[in-house]
Design brief:
Elements (H helix, E strand, L loop, with lengths): L8 H11 L16 H5 L10 H7 L7 E2 L9 E4 L8 H10 L4 H22 L5 H15 L6 H9 L10 H10 L3 E6 L3 H11 L7 E4 L10 H11 L6 E5 L2 H10 L3 E4 L15 E3 L2 H15 L1
Parallel strand pairs: 2-3, 2-5, 3-4, 5-6, 6-7
Antiparallel strand pairs: 1-7
């Protein structure tokens, strides 16, 4: 059982309307009748539950790791694209086109995708996420000796334009909106791809800012890329929680100075780069619980 409730369409409309123009209050309770603990303490499809009940329930449920930072100062949450958008359809498409080899192709593709981005950024030979992703796919297929026709290439690339959200995303974002959090996407993905994913996922009203690092012709973990979130949200970086999908993005965000939550959906091994996330969990439901616990520690 998650810690985030599922809302009716009527409730969704009310929350989105009420959240317009709101930010997280600078004083506990200012402008709000509910604390973050009270917001989170609503079980999926159940009536409100006290914090003590949630703590007892946590004995039998996996809880997110909570670091030693003051969650009460957080006024905005900036997400990488892939805690929000589900990449599994691309893996399935790889397997459908190359039975028994799809996982190898997808893994090689993803690895080279980011390597090409970083190499081009370092060398001053910029190409955007779409272009580097195409080049990485070509390389991955060649390296595995797979024949990649133009039609298959197009189908696999189109997967990035038809992404939808992970099942837990909409409810988790609504909880954050209900408490007045500003929400942003901050990603290496192009604006066209981000906007397409938002439309496909039905999240058009959720994000206050949609930020592509294409604006600066570079990629995370370039510090200038993370600075885009500070500039757009108009907040100190200490007041923006960054939600990363990949371990390297955790390190980049922490080096920049963001409090960071690792949405480790793949249960990946943490990078050995001298920094750790302030919290982690495999679902965004756990993000809401993490913020509630961290906020209470800061009171």
């Amino acid at each position: 059982m998650g810690l985030v409730r599922r809302y009716s369409e009527e409730e969704i409309g009310k929350i989105l309307k009420q959240s317009e123009g709101k930010g997280l209050p600078s004083e506990a309770g200012a402008g709000h009748s509910e604390s973050l603990h009270e917001v989170i303490a609503v079980g999926r499809g159940r009536e409100s539950t006290s914090v003590s009940d949630l703590e007892e329930r946590a004995v039998s449920e996996r809880k997110p790791t909570v670091g030693a930072f003051d969650g009460s100062q957080i006024k905005a949450v900036a997400f990488d694209a892939f805690p929000v958008f589900d990449l599994r359809p691309i893996l399935r498409a790889c397997e459908e086109e190359f039975p028994g080899r799809g996982s190898d192709l997808n893994g090689a593709w993803r690895t080279r995708q980011f390597e090409y981005q970083w190499l081009r950024a370092l060398a001053g030979q910029y190409e955007d996420f779409w272009q580097t992703t195409q080049s990485a796919l070509d390389f991955a297929a060649q390296s595995l000796k797979l024949e990649l026709s133009s039609s298959v290439r197009e189908r696999l690339m189109q997967g990035y334009l038809t992404l939808k959200a992970w099942p837990d995303v909409a409810d988790a974002l609504l909880e954050l909106k209900r408490y007045g959090m500003k929400l942003a996407l901050l990603s290496n993905v192009t604006s066209q791809m981000l906007q397409g994913g938002i439309r496909n996922a039905g999240l058009s009203e959720m994000f206050d800012h949609v930020i592509s690092t294409d604006r600066i012709r570079s990629f995370k973990p370039d510090p200038r890329a993370y600075q885009l979130g500070v500039d757009a949200l108009g907040l100190p970086k200490e007041e923006i929680l960054f939600v990363a999908f990949a371990g390297w993005d955790v390190a980049g965000a922490k080096w920049f100075g963001y409090p960071t939550f690792w949405n480790n959906r793949q249960n990946a091994t943490g990078e050995q780069l001298g920094v750790n996330p302030d919290g982690n969990g495999q679902s965004l439901n756990e993000l809401a619980g993490f913020l509630a616990d961290a906020s209470a520690q800061g009171v």
